[in-house]
Amino acid sequence: MDRTIDYGNLMHHAMRGLIREVMDRIATDGLPGAHHFFITLHTEHPGVQMADWLKERYPEEITIVIQHWFENLEVDDDGFAITLNFGNQPEPLYIPFDAISTFVDPSVEFGLKFETHLEPDDDEDEEDDEAPMEHVEHAQDAPKAGEVVSLDKFRK
User: Fold this and answer.
1) Which strands sit side by side in the sheet containing 79-85, from one edge to the other?
2) pTM above the 0.85 mark?
């Protein structure tokens, strides 16, 4: 039996833990300075809780912004609950950390992108397709308010 260290999944777990810690600090102390987040998540992920009209409008993914107005931020081991304003309508959400595909704080040029690769075809030389990968991006590559940006162009 060939045993290997699964670095992809270890990094996946560590980066989700980083998001958990950041969100926990924000829940306790609020957003400091100019910090704000663009968080893209898979709305079809099991455990995502949001209003039916939001899921209908964003059936696959949505990018939320945590900046000026948010309420009821509570963090647990698996995700966070938050109330955000959608068109002057406060809506409660629950977001599992595993549903997050990107996390960006453009105020400090920080970002994470989580990718899940499919099983490689019969070509065993394609090591890049074996595990989830994370990328750290810089703010110049981050989305502007209301804009969703693909970070695929930064893959090596």
Assistant:
1) 71-75, 79-85, 90-96
2) no
Would the pLDDT of 121 be above 50?
A: no
Contacting residues for 135 by C-beta, under 8 A, at least 6 apart: 111, 112, 113, 115, 151, 154, 155
Distance between CA 57 and CA 152 in Å, rounded?
24
CB atoms within 10 A of CB 127: 9
Phi and psi (nearest 5°) for 5?
-90, 125
pLDDT tens-digit profile of 19-47? 999 999 999 999 999 999 999 999 999 99
Amino acid at 29: D
**Strand-strand pairing, 79-85 and 37-42:** unpaired
Q: Which DSSP symbol is given to 30?
A: -
Q: Under the phi-then-psi rule, with left for phi > 0, alpha for psi from -120 to 50, and beta for the rest, what region is 126? A: beta
Which ranges constitute the DSSP H helices of 30-142? 52-57
* One-letter amino acid of 34: A
